[in-house]
Design brief:
The complex is a heterodimer of chains A (180) and B (346). Chain A is built from nine helices and no strands. With 180 residues, chain A is an all-alpha fold. Chain A has two domains: 93 residues, RNA polymerase sigma factor, region 2, helix turn helix motif (Rna Polymerase Sigma Factor, Chain: A, Orthogonal Bundle); 80 residues, Orthogonal Bundle (Arc Repressor Mutant, subunit A). In chain A, helix 1 crosses helix 2. Chain B is α+β, with helices and mostly antiparallel strands and 346 residues long. Chain B has three domains: 46 residues, no CATH class; 136 residues, Jelly Rolls (Sandwich), CATH 2.60.120; 77 residues, Phage tail protein beta-alpha-beta fold (3-Layer(bab) Sandwich). Chain B is built from eight helices and 18 strands. In chain B, helix 1 crosses helix 2. Classes of the chains: A mainly alpha (180), B alpha+beta (346).
Chain lengths: 180, 346
């Protein structure tokens, strides 16, 4: 049983607080993880995401969604996260400068899953990818965004998204334990 | 076609960005021995990249609280589950002040009358809670018997006053309601209320799960969902079950197997092709232990099992057999057991 984002947004525009709650529930974790890659702080990531939903609620009769609600949310969260970064005077405009190792250990420390074969575990493999490539892969595979949506959110070309995805898949398949 | 070119094609195929021609091309090359192995590796890695939730890092309750506080700066009376007032009055603080002042005045004048009225209708609420691994029975003054499953909470009045008998449920319980034609029995769960006139049924409404399930064995019940004007009330007949999706407020009515739904009362647990993640969750509840699995891809496999009043040891052995994993039990200081599943060393 799926409730479409379009339905939810129409209900939000009619001041339905329940619909806002449902939308929030649906995307909160994905958006926080996404924000975290920019803010490197759990607190700021949560602040950025709640700011975006606050704005969505307060300006619900003025905001027009052009592509998809999902793409809008991700783009807005990206922009708000960058605002927090600038506010906290991090000079990080280039994503690839973020040390992926730090992201991996921060998030995995709270992960309930214990990995006994870390080398082949897909999560650890993903964390070895350069930050931008990893983010693009997660946005497509885990958050279900299309190449077009990812390109729009990150302000890059679809061609770049394609190349990054191919490189990620190539890396993962090379690290696959080949069975003879 | 080089390996590189094939990987690019496969990537497009798996991420559903391939054109019709490219899909055909992929299937064509996939048949060839040279690329089939590569395709298999890519597929298995693609499948393995399943969702890994970081809910504990970004707990949603904290998110709700934060957002609500922010909205309340602009709308002091905002609540998640109340229908919102028309925007006309939201942003003008002058309106808020006027309405607040007049409300206060009315309240002040009515408080005297209100006080006496309230005292005569006072209700004392009781609460029965169960922890993991525990079941309990509550007998109400009207003769209704309620069996609570593990990790559940029933809030009920010490005595029933007024036109109806109302209780609040979180978790799961089996109801045997005493028929009273002038006083319907109402069970409130998150988003959904069940009205009943004298029947036997099971309600499963765990906060962490995405569905609320009401299964009717005998009699008839009427189910209302709150704040969903598009949805009509649903009346269930015996052997019918309603599954309500909390994510979008839609429900499905179907049939159910009695033993599978109410078996928990006799510690009979039946799983038919259910994802292991859910099986483990139910078992954690019934036995009061915790499970951990290192390989998350196992969690998505489905399991078929019947446990008739089995000991925990037997259940763990069955799970080992079904998953091909080994297990180890850890007891912590508060006597709580955690069972970890991991791959046997070759």
């Amino acid at each position: 049983m799926l409730c479409t984002d379009e339905e939810l947004y129409h209900r939000i525009q009619r001041s339905d607080g329940q619909a806002l709650k449902l939308l929030f529930q649906k995307y909160y974790t994905s958006l926080c993880r996404f924000a975290y890659l920019y803010t490197k702080s759990v607190h700021n990531a949560e602040e950025a995401v709640s700011d975006v939903f606050l704005n969505l609620w307060l300006r619900r009769d003025a905001i027009q969604i052009h592509t998809s609600l999902k793409a809008y949310l991700f783009t807005a969260v990206k922009n708000q996260s960058l605002n927090y970064l600038r506010r906290d005077s991090y000079a990080m405009d280039d994503l690839d400068a973020i040390h992926t190792g730090a992201i991996a250990s921060d998030l995995q420390a709270d992960c309930l899953v214990v990995s006994t074969e870390a080398k082949n575990h897909i999560e650890s493999l993903l964390n070895l990818l350069p930050a931008k490539r990893q983010m693009i892969f997660r946005m497509n595979r885990i958050d279900g965004l299309s190449y077009k949506e990812i390109a729009e959110i990150l302000s890059i070309s679809v061609h770049t998204v394609q190349n990054q995805m191919t490189a990620a898949i190539k890396f993962l398949s090379e690290k696959h334990p080949r069975r003879k | 076609m080089t390996d590189e070119e094939f990987i690019q094609l496969a990537t497009k195929f798996f991420s559903r960005e391939a054109s019709e021609d490219e899909i055909e091309q992929y299937h064509f090359y996939n048949k060839k021995k040279k690329y089939a192995a590569l395709a298999r590796h890519i597929q298995s890695q693609w499948d393995a990249a399943v969702k890994i939730k970081h809910d504990s890092v970004f707990p949603i309750d904290r998110g709700f609280q934060l957002l609500k506080e922010k909205i309340r700066i602009y709308q002091p009376s905002f609540e998640w589950d109340k229908p919102q007032v028309e925007r006309l009055f939201d942003f003008s603080s002058k309106w808020l002040r006027i309405s607040a002042a007049s409300a206060f005045l009315v309240l002040f004048m009515a408080s005297g009358l209100f006080y006496f009225w309230y005292r005569s209708h006072e209700i004392v609420w009781n609460e029965k809670k169960t922890v993991m691994g525990e079941q309990a029975v509550v007998s109400l003054p009207d003769g209704t018997r309620i069996t609570l499953n593990a990790d559940s909470k029933l809030t009920y009045p010490a005595r029933f006053v007024g036109q109806s008998r109302e209780v609040y449920l979180q978790g799961e319980a089996y109801f045997e309601v005493q028929h009273l034609s002038d006083k319907p029995f109402v069970i409130h769960t998150e988003n959904v209320s069940t009205i009943d006139l004298g029947t036997r049924f099971d309600i499963k409404a765990y906060p962490a799960e995405k569905n609320i399930t009401i299964s009717l064995e005998q009699g008839s019940v009427k189910v209302l969902s709150k704040f969903n004007s598009a949805q009509q009330d649903i009346v269930l007949q015996p052997s019918q079950q309603m599954v309500y999706d909390k994510n979008c407020g839609k429900s499905l009515v179907g049939s159910f197997d009695s033993e599978k739904i109410t078996g928990w009362k006799n510690n009979i647990l039946i799983f038919e092709d259910e994802p292991i993640a859910e099986v483990l969750r139910s078992l954690e509840r019934s036995y009061g232990v915790s499970f951990q699995i290192a390989d998350t891809s196992v969690l998505h496999r489905s399991l078929r099992a019947h446990f008739h009043n089995e000991s925990l040891a037997t259940v763990v052995k069955s799970l080992e057999k079904a998953t091909g994993l080994a297990s180890k039990t850890i007891d912590d200081r508060s006597a709580h057991q955690t069972i970890i599943f991991f791959e046997r060393k070759p």
